[in-house]
Design goal:
Blueprint (H helix, E strand, L loop, with lengths): L1 H14 L20 H18 L1 H4 L4 H21 L4 H34 L2 H10 L5 H19 L1 H15 L4 H20 L6 H9 L11 H16 L20 H20 L5 H21 L18 H23 L1 H13 L1 H11 L5 H11 L5 H13 L9 H9 L6 H5 L2 H19 L1
Helix pairs in contact: 2-4, 4-14, 5-12, 5-13, 5-14, 6-8, 7-8, 7-9, 7-11, 8-9, 8-19, 9-11, 9-18, 10-17, 10-18, 11-21, 12-13, 14-17, 15-16, 16-18, 17-18, 18-21
């Protein structure tokens, strides 16, 4: 049995090194990695994550296996805890420890999603798409314009939303040219992930580091130049293989609905409130986001009172378009956090932590963790690292923020942006389309790391 446990721990280190991180010390943490039930919990976790990886093939939303596994893992943890004499109070403390982490992330993301949906309902993104399509750009220009906008937009709108918006533009103008669509979608994923790496609003992992207090809001802008390099190197390489010519212009044009620009302004105000609450008032950023959400609610309320009953905008509801995939994402985060918390409760993460941040060192561990995030989601990567609280300086915290944020670009399944585009651009942007350019993306990944060492080391 002990050899089996050692083998499983070795597999975690090789395949899932981010999970080989220590769990924050609690009196309720066990040393039970050789317990048969603990090994069963580990196998359940591996199985559920395989289902997540093959989500597009089996059409099972990623939240379902992770929530199911989270429940099973904590049932097993309670049984093992009772066998080893853990009190009810200690068990409750171990479970609720993860709740605070999830609640802050949930409220922050919920506000951002509501604003994004309000902007979509007001046709802000559709108007942007129509404007770009009818500018008469050739394929080369459209390639740089769409990917450049993706890089600039993702720090505000998040990498997933940005990739879907710009992917829709590429699909519209590149109709009939699958080569252009595939290559441009690859770079849009790279640009969206790179742009999100230097802003707490652009990527969940950056947001988690910010909320944990390891870096202030403006500290992340030190990653701007590394992020630019991470985007430009593969983009410059791929652009040399684009098809020639110019796509046909479209006659359709969408106008921004009344109040669309006001919602844009309120969103920017809300972002400023989150930063102000954290930097000046010492309050958590999610509280500033919730306060900004109230401004949107009040604005809509007073706006509706000035409209006639037969006006279409009277029926506008900011909750009506809170899409199913977004709730799937939020619940997936819940499952991941509680699964990682259960593994930490058993003592798995503590037992292997020395391999990552002890034997390998922080730099090697952080670069490896970023590369592995191309295979598994970067959310559990970052959550495991934050749970550990490794002894790292400011430079290393920025390094893991960067590598976890952009490492997912190495494969199409490594980020939410890539997975989403594979679904919306089926037949044009695929796993193999992206894999063809992984070598160029890896050059950008290493180039960004080198830039971080030169500029911020």
């Amino acid at each position: 049995m002990k050899y089996l446990v050692k083998l499983m721990m070795l597999l975690i280190t090789i395949i899932f090194p981010p999970f080989a991180l220590a769990f924050e010390s609690h009196s309720s943490q066990l040393t039970a990695i050789d317990n048969p039930l603990a090994i069963l919990a580990l196998l359940i976790f591996f199985g559920s994550y395989l289902l997540v990886i093959f989500e597009e093939k089996i059409h099972l939303p990623k939240s379902k296996p992770m929530i199911f596994s989270a429940g099973l893992l904590w049932i097993i943890a309670a049984i093992v805890g009772r066998q080893l004499g853990v009190s009810h109070e200690a068990m409750e403390a171990a479970v609720t420890h993860n709740l605070e982490e999830f609640a802050e992330l949930f409220l922050f993301l919920l506000v951002a999603m509501i604003y994004i949906n309000a902007l979509e309902e007001r046709n802000v993104f559709e108007a942007l798409k129509g404007y770009l399509i009818n500018r008469g750009f050739n394929y080369q220009q459209l390639f740089w314009v769409t990917s450049g906008i993706a890089f600039v937009l993702s720090p505000i709108a998040d990498n997933l939303t940005t990739a879907l918006i710009m992917g829709a533009v590429v699909m519209a103008v590149g109709r009939g040219n699958p080569k252009f669509i595939g290559q441009t979608c690859v770079v849009i994923v790279i640009a969206a992930n790179a742009g999100g790496a230097f802003s707490p609003f652009g990527d969940i992992t950056t947001l988690m580091v910010w909320q944990s207090g390891h870096a202030s809001f403006f500290d992340f802008f030190q990653l701007f130049i590394p992020a630019v390099i991470n985007y430009l190197i593969p983009a410059a390489i791929i652009s040399r293989y684009l098809p020639k010519g110019q796509p046909p212009m479209l006659t359709e044009r969408t106008e921004v609905k009344t109040g669309g620009y006001l919602v844009c302004g309120l969103f920017l105000v809300t972002i400023c409130l989150a930063v102000t609450f954290e930097n000046l008032l010492g309050l958590p950023p999610y509280l500033g986001m919730m306060f900004g959400l109230s401004l949107l609610f009040l604005t809509i309320y007073f706006k509706k009172r000035t409209l006639k009953q037969d006006d279409e905008d009277v029926k506008f509801n900011v909750f009506s378009k809170l899409a199913k995939p977004e709730w799937d994402t939020l619940l997936f985060f819940f499952g991941v956090m509680y699964c990682v918390g259960a593994l930490g409760f058993f003592g798995y993460l503590t037992s292997i932590s020395q391999i990552m941040y002890g034997d390998w060192g922080a730099t090697t561990a952080n670069i490896a963790a970023g590369a592995i995030s191309a295979i598994i989601d970067n959310i559990p990567v970052m959550f495991a690292i934050l749970t550990m609280h490794p002894d790292m300086d400011h430079f290393q915290w920025l390094l893991i923020t960067f590598t976890a944020g952009v490492g997912g670009s190495l494969l199409s399944v490594g980020s939410a942006a890539g997975v989403a585009l594979m679904g919306t651009a089926k037949g044009h942007y695929t796993f193999m389309t992206h894999l063809k350019w992984t070598w160029a993306i890896a050059l950008g990944y290493l180039g960004g790391i080198v830039a971080h060492f030169l500029l911020n080391g």
